[in-house]
């Protein structure tokens, strides 16, 4: 971007102005236009008030655009341009050449509104310079904000996702599993316990080989383990421990009890 100060802006243009030769000031009182021979101006042309950055210059040019004189204006009101004491249409300006030589001449307008426009244009320009200087001073005194991310700082951005037809697509967040360690919670009602099988105490009889009175009982007992007990005798025992087979009385056949749940009825 080019610097703004490299461009020349036109603040005011007046197509007809009059230049007068003024006598030297004799006292400290202000200039009076009635002393200038107003009926015979020394030069007639146009006036352009231009600005280049903060510099303001009044240029007096002829109808062809040739420069006649220029008046650099550092501040207003000031020594560069001064109003006369007896009229609002006339001013005393200080013109300078490229070598730095200066001279004072009289400048007049044919209409009061033209002189009023010159006053307003000069006041606005220097007010703008003052305001710009205040803004620059505030910028220098105000600390610059640091918008950089601190260490570990993150930012969250919400983005709209649209479909091909232009409608907005809603993104549902994924449900997170509940519980500890990703294990499913237990079913309602608590954890059921399986009852252990009933214990059957085996019975043994020294005078019988088996405590199961019915052959094939182990095959029909589907509800629990079969229990058998064999009669044992100490090593080297006599025959009396086995009993008298000839005199032994037969045991009566056992009867199944219908109340025993381990029996299966056919």
Automatic annotation (TrEMBL):
Give yes or no: UniProt keyword Transport.
yes
The segment annotated Disordered runs over 165-266
Bias (Low complexity) ranges: 201-215, 223-237, 257-266
Pfam family for this entry, one: DUF1681
Q: Which InterPro entries match?
A: NECAP_PHear, PH-like_dom_sf
Coiled-coil positions are none
Q: Where is the signal peptide?
A: none
Q: Give the UniProt record's GO annotations in the biological process aspect.
A: endocytosis; protein transport
Where do Pro residues bias regions lie? 184-200
Any GO CC annotation of this UniProt entry: clathrin vesicle coat
Where does the record place the NECAP PHear domain? 7-160
Keywords associated with the record: Endocytosis, Protein transport, Transport
Query: Which protein family is named in the record?
Result: Belongs to the NECAP family.
**PANTHER family (UniProt xref):** ATP-BINDING CASSETTE ABC TRANSPORTER-RELATED, NECAP-LIKE PROTEIN CG9132
Indicate what this protein is called per its UniProt record: NECAP-like protein
According to the entry, what is the taxonomic lineage of the organism? Eukaryota, Metazoa, Ecdysozoa, Arthropoda, Hexapoda
């Amino acid at each position: 971007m080019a610097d703004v100060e490299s461009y020349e802006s036109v603040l005011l243009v007046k197509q007809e102005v009059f230049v007068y030769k003024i006598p030297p000031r004799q006292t400290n009182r202000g200039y009076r236009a009635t002393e200038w021979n107003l009926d015979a101006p020394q030069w007639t042309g146009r006036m352009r008030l231009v600005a280049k950055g903060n510099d303001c210059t009044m240029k007096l040019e002829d109808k062809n655009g040739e420069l006649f004189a220029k008046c650099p204006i550092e501040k207003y009101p000031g020594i560069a341009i001064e109003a006369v004491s007896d009229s609002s249409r006339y001013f005393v300006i200080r013109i300078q050449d490229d070598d730095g030589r200066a001279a004072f001449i009289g400048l007049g307008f044919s209409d009061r509104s033209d002189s009023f426009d010159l006053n307003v244009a000069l006041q606005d320009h220097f007010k703008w310079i003052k305001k710009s200087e205040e803004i620059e001073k505030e910028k220098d005194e105000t600390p610059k904000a640091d918008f950089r991310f601190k260490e570990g700082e993150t930012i969250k951005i919400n983005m709209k996702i649209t479909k091909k037809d232009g409608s907005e697509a809603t993104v549902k967040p994924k449900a997170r599993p509940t519980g500890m360690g990703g294990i499913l919670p237990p079913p309602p009602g608590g954890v059921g316990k399986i009852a252990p099988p009933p214990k059957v105490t085996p019975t043994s009889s020294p005078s019988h080989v088996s405590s199961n009175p019915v052959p094939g009982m182990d095959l029909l007992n589907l509800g629990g383990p079969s229990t058998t007990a064999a009669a044992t005798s100490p090593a080297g025992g006599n025959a009396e421990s086995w009993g008298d087979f000839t005199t032994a009385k037969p045991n009566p056949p056992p009867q199944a009890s219908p109340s025993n749940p381990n029996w299966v009825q056919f």
